[in-house]
């Protein structure tokens, strides 16, 4: 799951189909290659 570093929205799409390795936030119109990754499911956390 990708998160916008500016507004923390998950409305992040590949910019121009990903040709430039950039992302675009549909909420705040941020465009850049810096994006946050977040694990959607963390329920299966195992420790040894
Ligand atoms: Zn944003």
Word description of this protein:
The chain has 48 residues and is mainly beta. It is 0% helix and 25% strand. The protein has no helices and 5 strands. The protein has strands at residues 2-3, 12-14, 23-25, 31-32, 36-37. Strands 2-3-4 form a 3-stranded antiparallel sheet, with no helix packed on it. It has a two-stranded antiparallel sheet with strand order 1-5. Residues 4, 6-7, 9, 25, 27-28, 30 line the site of zinc ion. The site of zinc ion has 8 residues, from loops.
* Total E-strand runs: 5
Helix/strand-derived category reads mainly beta
Shape: elongated
> Which segments are poorly predicted (pLDDT under 50) over 5 or more consecutive residues?
none
> What is the distance, rounded to the nearest whole angstrom, between the alpha carbons of the first and last residues?
26 Å
Radius of gyration: 13 Å
Mean pLDDT: 89
**Beta-strand content:** 25-35%
Helix content: under 10%
Strand order of the largest sheet: 2-3-4
**Total helical elements:** 0
Major sheet characteristics: 3 strands, antiparallel
The unique ligands bound to this protein are: zinc ion
Could you give the order of the helices and strands?
A: EEEEE
